Amino acid sequence: MTNFISVQLKKASEVDLAKPLCKFIQQSYPGGDAQAEHCRAAEELSKLRKSALGRPLDKHESALETLLRYYDQLCAIEPKFPFSENQVCVTFTWKDAFDKGSLFGGSAKLALASLGYEKTCVLFNCGALASQIAAEQNLDNDEGLKAAAKHYQFASGAFQHIKDTVLSALNREPTVDISPDTVGTLSLIMLAQAQEVFFLKATRDKMKDAIIAKLANQAADYYGDAYKQCQYKDTLPKEVFPVLAAKHCIMQANAEYHQSILAKQQKKFGEEIGRLQHAADLVKTVSSRYDEYINVKDLVDKINRALTAAKKDNDFIYHDRVPDLKDLESIGKASLVKSTPVAVPLSQKFTDLFEKMVPLQVQQSVSVYNQRKADLVNRLIAQMREATNLANGVLASLNLPAAIEDVSGDTVPQSILNKSKSVIEQGGIQTVDQLIKDLPELLQRNKEILDESLRLLDEEENTDNDLRTKFKERWQRTPSNELYKPLRAEGTNYQSILNKAVHADGLVKERYQAHRDTIALLCKPESELNAAIPSANPAKTLQGSEVVNVLRTLLANLDEVKKEREQLENDLKSVNFDMTSKFLTALAQDGAINEEAISVTELDRIYGSYTQKVQESLKKQEELLKNIQNAHQEFSKMKQSNNESNLREEVLKNLAVANDNFVELVANLKEGTKFYNELTEILLKFQNKCSDIVFARKTERDELLKDLQQSIAREPSAPAIPLPTYQTTSAGGAKPAASSTPTPAPRTMVGAKPQPPARPPPPVISALSSSSSASAPSGTAAAPAAPAPAPTPPPGASAPAASTAPSQAQGPPYPTYPGYAGYCQMPMPMGYNPYMYGQYNLPYAPSPVFQPPGQAPYPAPQQPGYPFPQQPYYSQQ
């Protein structure tokens, strides 16, 4: 009687998890021990999947433990890897557990690039394997009963969890086996079987009949609910429905039986008989309808014996009235089972392979924090550099410090010599020329990488659109134009960056061309440089004056501010603070991360003092420049002015400006080269991302095309074939006109047994026929009298209805073709022979040359109006 239902496992296609996970790790984490450790963990995860899904599993606890560990690991990596179609794209393919498929079409399956889908299918297999393990338990001992009840309740919880989460996990219609209706029914079936196990344990422990009756009645209720949920749906295997119906009746019969014992103890003998009669009717229904699924002979015998004894006692002793079934009190219910909730980790032996990897939410928060930090540092550095450039520009416009250093008027000022030496040490104009020459090559390389990445997306998107147009609603996958929107936006951003870079390169080149000659002059030896500067002696009388000393002091203070600023810039760049622990703590405490609030607070704490120093430096420079300008005005008033001195001062100013431009140009060009090289790495990652998703989409496309071809193969491909002419004889018995095309041979209709026609009256055999038959040699058949040939009807006229032939030829009880030893051809009149076996009644002479292809060596009886000759018979010994 204890015939339990177990669920089949889903089958998964092989997937290499290590490769895409390692690629993401290498892109997201710096090289070193941590990266290598994460890659090893990815390989271990791939091996764990093969152990859990890549081989048949035994119905044992160890196999279930492997499945549970894999499910726990999937839950652990979900917040750490961005599994999606356009990031870490891994396509998981699973077959329907209940779909047996067809000869040409194969079984139904679904492929999705979704970790939630993988988790759902793995949890389904956990519940299915738990049901199989429970069904294998020995229910004759307490250990087996406890294990079965535990596994059934776990399976019920697993299926219930899938019912609650599958639609949100997949974001599309799932296969039938994991649809909410199906897994909801499976959950209820597992719960009913767990309740039945408790009923069996209560019976085995000989508990009170009132308790046993309530347990059985509750189990019957569960089975009844499960049957109602699936009786009108073709989602579960067909053998499940009769088992559920039988179990409902059996558990209800057990409830009535044990309640009848309680009625007997309470001296309610009529109620005892009524309940036993109801129980007998229930098991009788099971034995008559579902005997091939569940054997209830022992239960039938037990109930019948109790019913016979109760009737006998009541008839002879108690004479208690037997109440109607509707008048009996309802039996109570007692549920001892509940679905085990799915609480990760499910495995007691689980250890997270990626324990040291921070969750994706923390990674994203750290990334945003780093961006905020970079923006703040860059803004502070930009403010300081802008102030330095402003100071250099003001000094160059005032020809300082060259103006106060130019004592003799015919030598190069020391500041100009220092600037010239610095330019020559940095490579001079050749360095700038080489840096400018390299820029177009770097730019072209980045453009080619970006164009190739976008070309991959365009090609795949065009192919997807063509197939969507071809298959219309059958092409059920995310459109490429929607899926690629983030990548398109990223590509547009890179294109915009390149356009801005091209514009910036143009500005740098224009600036270089404007100052190239002066920079080239700075690169010359001191003698040539001195010859290029006009001679004059404008400040000879001012040497040692107070205004010159003030200017020198102010310039020295300004140089000190510049040096402090350089040190402050280095300090800003060297500050480093790991925010991972902060974000992890916030995630553990609140379950979410308020990145903006945490980041702003920490940045203010870390960089507040540096921001204050930058502002003080800017303010100090502003005061120094103001004082320098005031002192220079006094210096200019006192200085002797003439054309030669003005020309010399202008040249010195240009040389100072050329030095500043050289320094800035070299810095900009080196920064541009670094920018292009870094952009190349970013664009290569972008290209890899595009190629990965395109490859995944191609794989998904091939799988979908294969499924569509199989689906089309399962569909009927031809319209209904019209009946051949020999099956369309009119009711009046008239034969259709002969056709010039061959008529196909009649086919035997399997399953529809033809009924023989009414037996004809006995034929009248003439004396001539009898004598001819008697004079024939022994062992040969007498030749029948040849009937007169039927007149051939004129063209267009219908043949006379000489006899009525059945629409489907009926086979004789014995062979009647020539060559068979028992052949006996009797010349029966045409009107009395509905079988019409012979060929003498054909409306025209058969052709002796045509032999229909594929004719069986043992021919069927000749059909009326069949235009081709019988094939010779070859005796098979």
UniProtKB/TrEMBL annotation:
<feature type="compositionally biased region" description="Low complexity">
    <location>
        <begin position="798"/>
        <end position="810"/>
    </location>
</feature>
<dbReference type="InterPro" id="IPR025304">
    <property type="entry name" value="ALIX_V_dom"/>
</dbReference>
<dbReference type="Pfam" id="PF13949">
    <property type="entry name" value="ALIX_LYPXL_bnd"/>
</dbReference>
<feature type="compositionally biased region" description="Pro residues">
    <location>
        <begin position="848"/>
        <end position="870"/>
    </location>
</feature>
<feature type="compositionally biased region" description="Pro residues">
    <location>
        <begin position="754"/>
        <end position="764"/>
    </location>
</feature>
<dbReference type="Pfam" id="PF03097">
    <property type="entry name" value="BRO1"/>
</dbReference>
<protein>
    <recommendedName>
        <fullName>Programmed cell death 6-interacting protein</fullName>
    </recommendedName>
</protein>
<dbReference type="InterPro" id="IPR038499">
    <property type="entry name" value="BRO1_sf"/>
</dbReference>
<feature type="region of interest" description="Disordered">
    <location>
        <begin position="848"/>
        <end position="877"/>
    </location>
</feature>
<keyword id="KW-0175">Coiled coil</keyword>
<feature type="coiled-coil region">
    <location>
        <begin position="551"/>
        <end position="578"/>
    </location>
</feature>
<feature type="domain" description="BRO1">
    <location>
        <begin position="3"/>
        <end position="391"/>
    </location>
</feature>
<feature type="compositionally biased region" description="Low complexity">
    <location>
        <begin position="765"/>
        <end position="785"/>
    </location>
</feature>
<feature type="coiled-coil region">
    <location>
        <begin position="611"/>
        <end position="641"/>
    </location>
</feature>
<dbReference type="GO" id="GO:0090543">
    <property type="term" value="C:Flemming body"/>
</dbReference>
<dbReference type="GO" id="GO:0005768">
    <property type="term" value="C:endosome"/>
</dbReference>
<feature type="compositionally biased region" description="Pro residues">
    <location>
        <begin position="786"/>
        <end position="797"/>
    </location>
</feature>
<dbReference type="GO" id="GO:0000281">
    <property type="term" value="P:mitotic cytokinesis"/>
</dbReference>
<dbReference type="InterPro" id="IPR004328">
    <property type="entry name" value="BRO1_dom"/>
</dbReference>
<feature type="region of interest" description="Disordered">
    <location>
        <begin position="715"/>
        <end position="810"/>
    </location>
</feature>
